[in-house]
Amino acid sequence: MNTPARKAVVLLSGGMDSAVVVAMAKTQGFEVHALSVRYGQRHTSELDAAERVAAHLGVASHRTVDVDLRGIGGSALTDAAIDVPVAGDTGDSIPVTYVPARNTIMLSLALGWGEVLGANDLFCGVNAVDYSGYPDCRPEFVEAFERLANLATRAGVEGAHLRVHAPLQFMSKSDIAREGMRLGVDFGLTVSCYQADADGRACGSCDACRLRALGFEAAGVPDPTRYVNR
């Protein structure tokens, strides 16, 4: 008799990192339930990409939850009055593309859905190597959220050990590109740009575009990104 696969909730933004995380979770034998969040992001074409990726990778289920962070603002990704900076112009400070509490909120939603599904494993694509300096991408954040998950849920209190997996945490963008190719991820389905147009075409100038392009180049992998001006 076959043992049922363990369930996992995987945050799926529609970008290259989260697509690779879905593939990694499946390779580890998890029954993947993908969760996307419509949080008021200006680049909503990433949600269309998430649907494509979920279908391509054959997840058990995929849903999108609405939490409109435009109500608090404070980020170029949710406030049209704040310009998305051109790559290289962010300086040493945390850039304006940081969305206050975004990863905390998304993981909380994944945690809640995980309790409903009976999934004790959460996956996210945060990265502490090739990233933009966001405080909620650090290992300390992931570790702290896992402690919170085990304190704040019925599952945790009743003895289930809840885990937060961040398998890309210490991988470079080129490592991620190579791993995705190895696992059969179609990066042409993904959208990473902070200001992608309605058709998912990338600007080619924001920080997300820069990191993505450099990752493909360093990995020796053809860049499948569709750009507005190419």
From TrEMBL:
It is an enzyme of class 6 (ligase). Catalyzes the ATP-dependent conversion of 7-carboxy-7-deazaguanine (CDG) to 7-cyano-7-deazaguanine (preQ(0)). Zn(2+) binds at residues 193, 203, 206, 209. Belongs to the QueC family. It catalyses: 7-carboxy-7-carbaguanine + NH4(+) + 2 ATP = 7-cyano-7-carbaguanine + 2 AMP + 2 diphosphate + 2 H(+). Keywords: ATP-binding, Ligase, Metal-binding, Nucleotide-binding, Queuosine biosynthesis, Zinc. Its cofactor is Zn(2+). InterPro entries: QueC, Rossmann-like_a/b/a_fold. The gene is queC. ATP binds at residues 12-22. It comes from the Bacteria. Pathway: Purine metabolism; 7-cyano-7-deazaguanine biosynthesis. This is 7-cyano-7-deazaguanine synthase.
